[in-house]
Amino acid sequence: MRFAVLTVPGFPLHALRRSDPSLAGRPCALVEGEGKKARLTEVSPEAAGAAPGLPASLAMTRCPGIILCRRGPAAETEAQRLLVAAAFTLSPRVESTAPGCCTIDLLGADPARAEALLRLRAAELTAIGLPARAGAGATPLLASHAARLASPVLVVADSAAFLAPLPLAFAEPTRAQEEVLRSWGIATLGALTALPKADVGGRLGADGAALWERAAGEAERVLRLVEPARSFAAEWAYEPPVESAEPLLFKLRRYAERVSLELRGAGLVAEKLSLTLLLEDESDHRREFRLPEPAADADGWLRILGEHLSGLRTPARVSGVRLVASPARLPGRQDGLFDTALRDPAAFWENLARLGAIVGDDRVGTPAHADTHRPGAFSLVRPAEAVAPAPAQVHAPAGPALRRFRPPWPALVTCASGAPRRIDAGRVGGAIRAALGPWLSEGGWWEPSAWAVETWQVELEAGGVYQLARTQAGWHVEGMLD
Amino acid sequence: MPAQSVSALRSLLAERFPERARRVGGGVPVGAASVDAALGGGLASGRLTELVCAPGAGGQTVLARLLASTRDARQRVALVDGADGFAPESLPGDMLRHLVWVRCRVPAEAFAAADIVVRDGNYAAVALDLRGCTERALRRTPSCVWYRLQRATEEGSVAVLVLTPCPIVPAVPWRLELAAPMALAAAGAPRDRLAAELSIRTDRSPHQAEELAG
Question: Å from B211 to nearest chain A CA?
Fold first, then answer.
């Protein structure tokens, strides 16, 4: 799986209920339209008898006590920030796709761990008032389909088998396309992709080919990545102002949950909290809390903030609150005087695994010289936990450093008096102005993989110093002295 | 914009965002006197520095000096090698213990890897080597990739050196150019002396930007 989608069905209503304590556990619904045209768009599970699309007046008759609300843009913005923060704990490449939906590029993530993290994140979001579902697949589209069908997490391993039984509507055909396909007896994505793509394109045009690609889950797109949070703060207002601690603590919890998730997504913790109560009389009450142990734990923060608020008396009602968390990196260990160990070992090894997933495990590590004189031989080893002091150098490096061409470029070399005089390697060629060499080396003569190489350094008349190697396979340009 | 307005704006930003203002400054010496002099002491922490290298002009020598300098200071370095051109035999084995080498095949891998290592927090310097990648592939890289890398760099304290075949990084605070190719006669010269004598041209620096604004 390469992409994951976190989505919250019924997002506007859940966002509103998260922000308003009076809606907790009570039947409520969102309405759109005015007067007699007002209709329900989202309905809470407690509102028995009401359903989306029902006129508001009828809903009030069928479900006495139902609370009808309008959408809350501020509540949705805050809930979306929470969702994005949760996504950033999974990967640094996140798209805020739509309200209540995030697409995550899992490039480099360990698949088994990513699935476990998706389950954990979905459960956490559900616990804090956003019942999320997560899907994962090879493309953003597949992950999106999986998230729609997940309960709560669905990872698509075999995309063809997953897509085949899905109704045609998943590929979002136009009305005209749907009618044509129905007349062909095609009702599922599998039935459509059973037809050759070229034939579908031939009959339905380019749009038909695009529809086929969507049905096959092949439609790729570039994610519009969002930046992770850089300031870890929340600010909100009360209208009308409040005079007791309960509404303060309710919203503090909601915002603290988001800020702590943002910190965790950035691999940080809070070392200090700053709480400012903006009072109705234009004054304010500000207090800083240095945390006993730096953490990104909203429950721990609320214990400290709640204790302070429970004994607080202010001269006026509270009209707004500002909460700021001062970020710090959690040191894995304390640095010693002469110690240069990893500051954050967890992040280091996790990122190394991510890099390995991107370029291959055998292509990332610390280079070490191989126990041979063969030019260019090396191995990649696991990086050291601590960097020891460098020993004194017996011979300081001399000359420009070599930059290798991998693989080396085959070359035709003309020699005179035993030295190269002209080179033709396609990308580089011409007369040779000066040459140094040869350096002869050989090894492994006691093995089938015996090797022998003659190395030269040459300067072309057109400029540039190159390293040439002559082996049984002929001449090659190994690299450039740069 | 008048210089006074620019400096007033800077003061205001430093006052409003003290954390950010504190992070700017400091640096990682490259160990090549010519480059360090052009950069005012070394690679700026929390900033991108672009080194535009003509073929054979000394880019790899600068990289080798950076590795030697950071090894002496026992600082960790990541090398994101866009075209897999690094030759470990160019340095003694002991001088590589602090290095994490990421051998990429295409620029997309290099950008994805760089995005991870600049956020890591364990590295003092990151070298993103894009020489050997085709200019066409680099020009196709969306600007947002560069801005994302710059923002990620500014968030931490890592110094990022981007080695490029042509000027490619948008809005980079430092851009130096190495244009004069080396000769074979340099083959026996001590590397630190070679690096000190490299011909560097400063194409862009924060000081120039200030002067222009003035």
Answer: 30
Rounded CA gap, A386 and B76, in Å? 9
Distance CA A277, CA A238 (A): 11
Cα R_g (chain B), whole angstroms: 17
Question: What is the token pair recorded at A143?
Answer: 């992950």
pTM of the model: 0.62
Q: Does B3 have pLDDT greater than 60?
A: no
pLDDT value, residue A212: 92
Q: Residues A269, A274, A278, A282: is their CA dihedral positive or negative?
A: negative
- Residue B125, CA distances (Å) to A242, A461, B130, B149 in order: 50, 37, 16, 14
Contact of A341 with chain B, judged by CB distance below 8 Å, is answered with no
Neighbouring residues of A13: CB distance < 8 A, sequence distance ≥ 6? A28, A29, A30, A42, A43, A44
Q: What is the per-residue pLDDT for A288? A: 87
- Interface touch B187/A92, C-beta < 8 Å: no
Q: CB–CB of B105/A359 below 8 Å?
A: yes
Task: Please tell me which of the candidates B93, B121, B151 has its beta carbon nearest to residue A369.
Answer: B93
Helix axes A73-88, A245-265, angle to 10 degrees: 40
pLDDT attached to residue A337: 55
Tens-place pLDDT, residues B4-63: 676 677 677 766 665 554 444 458 999 988 899 888 889 999 999 999 999 999 999 999
Residue showing tokens 């866009």: B82
Query: Any idea how long chain B is?
Result: 214
Which segments in chain A show pLDDT lower than 70?
330-340
